[in-house]
Design goal:
The protein is about 30% helix and about 25% strand. By secondary structure, the chain is an alpha+beta fold. The protein folds into five domains: about 90 residues, no CATH class; about 150 residues, no CATH class; about 40 residues, Laminin; about 100 residues, Phosphorylase Kinase, domain 1; about 240 residues, Orthogonal Bundle (Transferase(Phosphotransferase), domain 1). The strands form twelve sheets. Strands 3, 4, 5, 6, 7, 11, 15, 19 and 20 form a nine-stranded mixed β-sheet that branches. A six-stranded mixed β-sheet has the order 29-33-34-32-31-30, sandwiched between helices. The protein has a five-stranded antiparallel β-sheet with strand order 9-8-18-12-16, with no helix packed on it. Strand 39 and strand 40 form a beta hairpin. Helix 7 runs antiparallel to helix 9, helix 7 packs antiparallel against helix 13 and helix 9 packs antiparallel against helix 12. The chain is rod-shaped and about 175 Å long. Bound molecules: 2-acetamido-2-deoxy-beta-D-glucopyranose (NAG) (12 copies). It is found in: Membrane.
């Protein structure tokens, strides 16, 4: 079935094809010829063109080169223009005129246009017939003057008639008296004659209006030009068609991309390019797609894109609609822009917040002694860094409370453990104290002094970042029953020796010397190998060169450890630390708090108890240190004596920290050198201790004065 249709189609093509190829069979691309400034498009051609350049001799035009520029003619009619697009030609036709004198017509000319034998007809739609005069009948006759149309104009001698002689432009004569016109022109006229008549031989108006004119003109107004020999001519539009056949009779009679339409007033057809195509539709090539985009931007908005027979105006990205009419923001864009605007707004608000925070931080930084920092080679921590490290100062991470701040355990990147000390107050005094600590500690580089890693000054309250010392305070180990670390005299001795060394360093080697002012067991930290680390320098003072601190300085330190001489003299010296250290020694040896309450509520001073025990040779009653050997017993006595000397009421009677350190280190050294002999038990127990410690880590601070 399908095959049959195919065969039939092929057969049909074979039958039809020869006839289809009949008409514009020739190649006219070389024929487009000029006459002067007029082009002569196919199906028209010039006399000297070869025969394929015009459809038949009726379309053969002549070019008279005796004119400059040369003029195009058919028969004796000058052709002003030929348009393939509208299938029209514009020709010049002299006006008809009549002039009168007292005895009647003085001179008169009628005009005829004979299109017989030519493919032209008078355009019925594009021309207007006009007559100008005040006693005037204009006649447009056709087909042998038996039939015709016309118009009549009558007016008195007060009407001034426009003198159209020599006028070569469009005029609008019939807007006034003295003119008449008609547009009722029949279709398909091949012959016209234009005449003028007068009702009264201009008898009454001769003076004002001796001459009448009549003409057929293109358009609604008079299109007049100066004709040859000082005549006035008008432009007349002619239609033209091709052939005496119809579109359906011959296939492909027009070129490519064209439509064929039958003439509605004569035999013949017309070819026209499809919309959006241009070219000569009567030639084989026919019409080609116009690139609308090559001309001046045809799009109202967007990017012009040529398509076959048309063009599109693509709206810019994010816009919708037809760019020919105008683009509007697409819904998606609106959403995106809306979202974008929202995000921008949020971002802006965040930015402002960030700026504000930053400003506050900067302000704090300034306030918190950013200048101080300049001298120190400390790391300047960011507040966010520390907030993160301490899980926003989680209470569970609180290690303890010092005199001037809380200490939190933190870890940076889960790697480096730190202790963050956060100032307790935001008042200037507290902050100064805090910064004082930073200043002091930063000047100490001793293995038995807890190391300051950095500061954070941008936060509202300044923060100090210390190395994390994992094994708690000496105070904890003295009093916690779970702690077995101090069950070894060697360790006890080592811890106090190291502490003494640190204090000695601060007193003697630091420049300027530093008084800790708050020496007590809870300020002595123990690291993983139970090495002592002196901490909490909030109350410490750098002693200026004149050695003493002005008496106005308020006492800072912990009751029970505090140098009583200070209350009398108001003078704080390194001997104050010696006093404190003496109390520490006593505490360690006796496992008693420096101040406690007796059964009847009376206040008991360890210093008094210890001193009197020593004086009364009753030390055994207060000592609670594990002594195994004779030597250890001797050592304890030496240390107890040292402790009592340290807490002498008069600072002059107290040994210096150097002396204390020498004694303790001397004792400690003996154990160190003999340690090789000792069993490994101690070390094993130490490690066990470490495990216990890390499981029940707890800090204890005494309250401050
Ligand atoms: C017509 O002739 C021109 C050269 O004169 C040639 O370029 C063109 O392809 C020809 N067209 C056809 C349809 O034969
Ligand atoms: C036709 O005649 C004009 C003027 O005489 C000349 O310029 C033109 O080249 C001629 N055309 C042909 C095809 O001979
Ligand atoms: C050209 O025009 C002139 C003046 O109107 C006329 O004398 C001449 O015969 C014309 N020539 C042709 C070839 O028609
Ligand atoms: C000829 O007619 C076409 C179409 O009407 C017009 O575009 C062109 O300007 C005309 N040429 C002259 C010289 O009047
Ligand atoms: C007008 O003049 C012509 C002669 O020129 C004459 O035959 C005619 O009768 C006159 N008509 C009138 C109305 O005077
Ligand atoms: C009017 O014109 C005609 C023809 O030109 C002439 O014979 C006649 O003498 C003229 N009459 C007057 C009064 O000039
Ligand atoms: C028009 O011209 C043709 C020949 O060109 C002629 O046969 C015909 O008689 C003319 N018609 C008129 C009305 O003069
Ligand atoms: C116009 O005509 C009137 C009579 O209708 C006459 O009296 C008058 O003089 C004329 N005017 C002119 C300027 O000819
Ligand atoms: C019209 O004007 C021309 C010159 O522009 C002149 O020669 C002619 O006499 C005038 N005609 C009338 C009726 O005034
Ligand atoms: C030219 O063709 C037209 C129709 O296409 C026809 O009427 C006319 O007789 C033809 N003229 C000549 C000279 O072949
Ligand atoms: C061409 O003809 C088709 C149908 O014959 C019509 O739909 C279309 O509008 C025509 N195009 C032009 C440009 O005349
Ligand atoms: C060109 O495209 C527009 C829509 O963009 C349409 O309205 C118009 O009819 C098209 N013209 C042609 C010739 O297809």
């Amino acid at each position: 079935m399908g095959l049959q249709i195919l065969c039939f189609a092929i057969l049909f093509l074979c039958v039809v094809y020869p006839e289809a190829a009949l008409e514009p069979s020739q190649n006219q691309s070389h024929c487009e010829s000029q006459c002067g400034d007029q082009s002569v498009p196919y199906p028209f051609g010039l006399e000297n063109n070869s025969h394929e350049c015009f459809i038949n001799s009726s379309y053969k035009l002549s070019c008279n080169h005796s004119f400059t520029p040369p003029k195009l003619f058919f028969s004796n009619v000058p052709i002003f223009n030929i348009s393939v697009e509208t299938a029209t030609a514009t020709v010049h036709l002299d006006t008809a005129y009549t002039c009168y004198n007292k005895s009647g017509v003085e001179v008169g000319f009628s005009q005829t246009l004979n299109l017989t034998g030519w493919p032209f007809t008078i355009s019925s739609t594009l021309n207007t017939f006009m007559a100008i005069g005040c006693d005037t009948v204009g006649l447009l006759s056709y087909e042998g003057v038996q039939r015709g149309t016309g118009c009549l104009s009558v007016c008195d001698n007060s009407t001034s008639i426009r003198n159209l002689t020599g006028i070569t432009q469009q005029v609008e004569p019939c807007s006034e008296f003295g003119c008449c016109q008609t547009t009722k022109i029949p279709k398909g006229l091949k012959f016209i004659e234009i005449d003028l008549l007068s009702l009264f031989n201009h008898t009454y108006i001769l003076a004002s209006n001796p001459c009448d004119i009549a003409f057929l003109t293109a358009g609604p107004n008079a299109n007049l030009v100066n004709g040859p020999e000082h005549k006035v001519s008008s432009q007349v539009v002619l239609d033209w068609t091709v052939g005496d056949t119809t579109c359906d009779k011959v296939k492909n009679i027009c070129g490519h991309n064209t439509n064929c339409t039958n003439s509605n007033y004569s035999s013949g057809y017309r070819c026209s390019c499809w919309q959006g195509y241009a070219g000569n539709p009567y030639t084989v090539e026919g019409c080609k797609d116009m690139n609308e985009c090559a001309n001046e931007q045809p799009c109202k908005q967007g990017t012009c894109k040529n398509t076959p027979g048309n063009y599109t105006c693509q709206c810019p990205f994010g816009y919708q609609g037809d760019g020919k009419v105008g683009c509007s923001i697409s819904t998606a864009s609106k959403i995106i822009i809306g979202t974008g605007a929202f995000i921008f707004l949020v971002a802006f608000v965040l930015f402002l917040h960030w700026r504000y925070k930053k400003k506050i931080q900067e302000k704090n930084h300034r306030k918190n002694g950013g200048l101080l920092l300049g001298h120190l080679s400390l790391k300047d921590f960011k507040e966010t860094q520390l907030v993160k490290a301490t899980n926003n100062f989680d209470a569970r991470r609180l290690l303890g409370e010092g005199g001037n701040g809380w200490v939190y355990k933190g870890s940076i990147e889960n790697m480096i453990e730190i202790a963050v000390k956060k100032s307790k107050g935001i008042d200037q005094n507290k902050i100064e104290q805090f910064l004082n600590e930073a200043d002091v500690v930063s000047k100490i580089n001793h293995k038995n002094v807890v190391k300051l890693l950095g500061v954070c000054l941008e936060s509202k309250v300044p923060m100090l970042v210390y190395e994390f010392v994992p094994n708690g305070t000496l105070s904890h180990h003295i009093y916690a029953s779970s702690s077995r670390i101090l069950s070894s005299w060697r360790i006890c001795l080592k811890i106090v020796a190291e502490t003494a060394r640190a204090l000695d360093y601060m007193h003697s080697d630091a420049n300027p010397p530093i008084i800790h002012r708050d020496v007590k067991p809870s300020n002595i930290l123990l690291d993983e190998t139970y090495t002592a680390k002196v901490s909490d320098f909030g109350a410490s003072k750098l002693i200026p060169k004149d050695r003493t601190i002005e008496p106005t300085t308020q006492g800072q330190g912990t009751f029970g450890y505090f140098d009583p001489e200070f209350f009398q003299t108001g003078e704080l010296t390194t001997k104050s630390d010696v006093y404190g250290f003496g109390v520490v020694l006593m505490e360690l040896l006796s496992k008693q708090k420096p101040l406690s309450r007796g059964q009847s509520g009376e206040s008991i001073s360890l210093v008094q108890v210890f001193t009197s025990a020593l004086e009364n040779n009753q030390l055994d009653q207060v000592l609670k240190v594990p002594v195994a050997t004779e030597r250890e017993t001797e050592d304890v006595k030496i240390v107890a004596n040292l402790a009592v000397r340290c807490v002498s009421m008069s600072s002059k009677d107290r040994p210096t920290m150097t002396e204390v350190a020498d004694v303790l280190n001397g004792l400690s050294k003996e154990y160190r050198s003999s340690q090789v002999e000792g069993s490994g038990d101690e070390m094993v127990s130490l490690l066990d201790e470490q495990d216990v410690m890390s499981a029940s880590f707890d800090l204890e601070y005494s309250s401050s004065v």
